[in-house]
Amino acid sequence: MRTWLEGLFRNGRSRTTDENPLESRADISPEERAVLLVGILDDPTAREDEQYDAAMYMEDFPGPLVESCLIRTIRAEDFSSVLAQLCAESLAGIWAQQDRIDRDFFAELHGQASREVLGILGARAPHLIPTKDSEG
Fold this sequence. Notes:
The chain is an all-alpha fold. The chain is 60% helix and 0% strand. The chain has seven helices and no strands. Helix 2 (30-42) packs parallel to helix 4 (64-76).
């Protein structure tokens, strides 16, 4: 899958050492890339490895579409699957980049997805982790 994604975004051009696969295609806007990644996660026929790769790349494309897709997938995966963990990691990365969290969804988190979010936020933006005093 990673090769397929790299090929999709690179269009046969060799990647330079300082760019990631999704930066390789200047002719595809970040918004279009986000839509493609969301499409992979939402596709019930997509292979598991394709969905894992898409979930990992999504952190690089923050926005409401990506965020809602990550949240939807985490819920659908009952907060515990490998895919839910990868989505939680990307979601926490987006929150850390944007210096904000979705408090309602944060309160829903449990299981491995919760541990992933807490781990990422703890390392990158510990001030975003709600305390008991700040909840409510």
